[in-house]
Structures are given as structure tokens and as C-alpha cells.
């Protein structure tokens, strides 16, 4: 969370001064002392310098608070002839955010000597020129200002001329040559002397040029300008070759002495590069476009010369009018590129200044934001603004902002400039995960192996990063309910639901469990959904017979001989533990003694006569009814019915008792079956008789041998102490005189015994 708060911005401007071209590292001032801060506070509050221009000329020592020179500065290069020459910057402090304006004045040093653009100046003067006549000379150029600029002119010793130093309205000085004595061409046709321009520096610097005066023959009329001073104004956006003004002069002489040519006196290199004049017409035109922000006023010296060498001078004062040709500049001094979405309103995002080089209405600016965004601009001081939040932010709706600040001036037409600031919001865990469904229903087959995937849960979180990482878990059920944690599991990362063990549809048909999705925020947020697992039935249970009971022998049913067609004999009842189609049962007659006599209801299981019973029908009928479900594959069970056809119900039990125990149906005629039974019975009785004789004989022999061995008692019979180890002793409930003889068969000593007779003493 980054919160920037504006605690204040001082409107006062701190002023310092330093000579131009001082060495790097030179001390200017102690800013910490002026601001009332210590060096440690400057370091903690991350003080830094924000230059007004693109280049940084100073640097701040955070330990001492000293402002020192970072780059050498040439006053003439930075400001030209403008005075004072100021280098402005801002001191920006953080925690809390403060800004202080400061300016350093560059004081001029005498590092330039006056220079004449032409090292030789030629003047043509008529010999009839009267003493006291003044001649304007080319000015020397000295880029220094103040006392270091050009102060006066002097000429070398001669008999004819003096020099006077004059000052223009802008403070610059020029030289006027004054004729002190009448010329005589016949006596001296050419006069040469030097002129020296001296500045006021310490020590002073100077520059010289050679003046050659050519004495002309008599030309008694000089050109005369219509005006000694021409004042004109021109728009700064005027194109090249635009006519500035037309100067005009006349000469009363005739011939070549009356022909006038115009020229610009080389008093400034800037004038020479900016203006040109038609020597014949006197039209002054622009050589290059003007810039009001660089030069607002020009003074041009115009000379009109006739063919006889006489000349006159006038001044042209050109006022440049400002045009709204400079768009405002948006200068960012501080920017926060990331901001928490939980930042409150009025949180500072950026600090910036607006500058327009134009003047008047063209230089007055306003700021605005483009588009509907949760930000606004606050004015801190003149041309200083802060971009702050106007409402709460939500990263899930808008994660990034491109905030465009537009500055517009009040010129006509208005110019504007824009600066786009990129701001990215940092996520806060303010959104809980959301399931795509409130209830998830998943199917699993009965007896399905463990580990099978049943489906996938899905929850989304609009947050970002760790705050959006969703993990799934089962919510423990209340105590006493089905332990669903042993039935299914949920993958924490993917939300995949898997079975943990096979389920039996007949025991668990469905169950519900609560699933929680939690994000990775701090603290984590969560949501819940219901997972309902439905067990799909498989045909794993065969039909179960209720009647007749499956563990009994063939059920006996009685049918009278007079039973008509459709007579209800019995009803087979069965159930299936499965569900749905797997539990739909159908009944059919699988086998019968006489298939055409009985039929079974497909769905009811009722066994009825298919036709009327006749005397020819066998008295005992055996029916096998097949019960089948509709599962895939289907399962079945069979019920066996024994049906007795009787004339009346009095001999019903007699008929049923004679039913064979083996349960097999006769395969031959009734007479053959009775014969077979009689032979089998006779054989069995004979065998049993012989076996009884053998057993009785063996038993008699065994008893005789045992008596011989037991009188007196022998070691082959058990005494009292012989039963101690097997848990049988003489201390039971019977008195000692009663003893019993016990014989055990081989291999049955621990499983059975017989009491034969008492052994008396």
C-alpha cells in the first residue's frame, strides 16, 4: 500500500547567485539550512532537484545539504543579452510531499572582449563636409552584460576626427565619428586610423578595427530620410521575405550624386541575420522567421548613400507581436506507477507542472483529464498541480489506467498538449471464490473401482496472483452422519472428485457433502457448494424368491381334477434388491411335466391352468418357473412347484407323502415306477438286515473282551487319577463307590462316550 499525501508547497522562491563558468563542484548555497532541515532529513525524505529545463546544472549533497555546481554554465549561451540570467529549479521532498522553488542568478564575468565584425571600416567623406558632422560607425559586439559589456570607444591620434560613445535605448553603446577639421582632398585623399572598443571589466578587454576614410570630391547635398525613426510591428509567425517596412530618402543633387542606395548598418549580427534591405527601393524584408520568445524588439540602423558618397541614417524599431505558437508543456515531477486498489480517495498519484513560453492570454493555461476516470486534478500553486484519486478503486473492474492530462492555453486558436500516465492497480484480497454451481450432481456406478474420476468442481476468484489461487477441500460432516470423507476425495488444486472405494447401491444410493473453495489471500476468503453423488444401480442382485422358499424342497400344490382353464394353482412371489429396470421381474414357465397344462403370468407370477384338467393328465406334475430381471446382463432364479392332481382333497396328503424324496420326476409309466420302488425297497431291507447281524455279533465279542480286561481293573481302563489331565476327576457330585465303565472308540476319545453299567466293588 503506497499512500502519498501532499502536506504543502511553499510559494516563496529561494534566490541564490553564482558566477558563470565556475568549476564543477563549486559551492552555491546550503539548502538544508534555508529550508530548516538537517542533512539526515534530506536523505530520509529523498530530496531531489527538478530542473525547469531539460538539463540539470546543479546537484544536492544529501549529507551536508550543500547545493553545488554540476555542469559549467555559460551565461551568454543560456541567456544571451537577457538580464538577469536565472536558472530555476524545484526542490522536491517526500514523506510528506513538499516542493520548494529556487532560482540561481548567473552573474556575468568578463570572459569576452569586444569584437568588430569587420576588421576594416571604409568611409567615403566629401571634402566639403563641414566640421562637426557626425558619422555612425559599425558597433563592436560584446556578449557580456553590465559593466563587463562594451563601455566606450576611442580612436588613435589623428588631425581630423574625434569619436563619441552613445547609448541606445536598450543600453547598448555605439560610436559616432565626428569631423573636427575640414578635409582637403588635395592635401590628403585618404585618412587611416584605428578605433578601439573597451569594456568595463577588471581587467578591461578591448577590440580594434581599422578605419579608412576616403575623401571625395564635392557633393554638397546629402540624402534626407522622410523619417528619422520608423516604428513598425510585425507578427512573429510572419513568413520569410515578408515586407517589414519601406524606408525612403531623397537627395537634391542630380546625376550620380542624387542616386541613393540603401543598406543596413552592421550594428548587430542578429539584425544582419534577420533582416535584409533592397538597395534601390528601401524595402526591408525578413530573412528568417521571427520568434517572440527569443527577441521582442529589433533596432535597425539604415544608411542611405548617394552616388557622391554622402550618406544619411535613420532608425527602424521593429516590435514583434506574440502569436500563440507554443503549446503548453506538461512536466511530470513525481509519479506513482503502482497503487493499491484499497487506496482511499484523495490519494496523490502524480505531481506535475505546466509551462507555456507564450505571453498574455497565449501563456495562460488550464488542465483537464480526458475521459471518465476515478481521478481529478488539484491546483497546488501557480502552474503546479497534483493528480489524485476521486473515488475508491476496484482492480477487478479496471486493472490498469492510462490517465491522459491535457493542458490548454487561452490563445486563439488555443493550443494544447497531452501527457499520458500509466497506472497499475495492486490487488487486495477483497473477493471470495465463487462456484459455478450451487449444487454439483455427479454419478457413479455401483461397484465402480476406487480412484475413478466422477467430475470436476470449478470455482473462480476475480482477484489476482496468490489471492486468486483456489484450493478445494471437503467440509467435515456433523458427528453421527455418514463419513463421506471415506467415500470420495477432492483434489485440492484441480477440484477433481474421485471415488475412494466401491459402493453398494442397495446400501448407499446417494449422499451429499459440502465442499469449500478457499483462496490464498491473507486472511483467506472462501465459499461453499453442495456435492451430491448419486450411485447408479448395477444388476448385481439376482431375483430373490419369497414363495416358494428357495431353501425348501418342491412346494406342493393341490389341483382338483375338475379344475377348469384359468384355475389359480399358485403364485410365485420374488423381489429384486436392485432398482429400476434391473428390478423389473418377469415370470415364465421353464419346464413342466406337461407343458401345455399350465401357464405363468408374465408380470404377476400367477400359475394357472392353461386348459381344463383331464383324467389322462399325470396325477403328479412338477413345474419349474424361471424368474428373470431386465438388467444387462439379466439375472434369474428358479422356483420348483410340485402339483398334485386329486379327485378331492381327502387324499391330498396321501398323494403328497408318496412323492419321492429325491425330487426327480418319473420318466416312465406309473406302473414301471412302482415296480422299481418295490425292488429298491426289498434290496435296502435285505442289506440292512445283514448289516444289523454283523454289528450285533461284533458288539457281543467286544463286550466279552472288555469284561475280561476290567476284572480286576487293569491299566487299559481309566482310574480316578487318569482323568485329572482331561478335566474329569473323582471329586465330582457322585460318591466314590459309584464307578462307571467307559469305552471309547478309536479316534473319539475327546468327542463322545457311552455309559454302559456301574462297576460295583
From TrEMBL:
GO terms for molecular function: calcium ion binding. This is PCDBE protein. Potential calcium-dependent cell-adhesion protein. May be involved in the establishment and maintenance of specific neuronal connections in the brain. The chain crosses the membrane at residues 674-697. It comes from Malurus elegans. It holds the Pfam family Cadherin_C_2. It comes from the Eukaryota. GO terms for cellular component: plasma membrane.
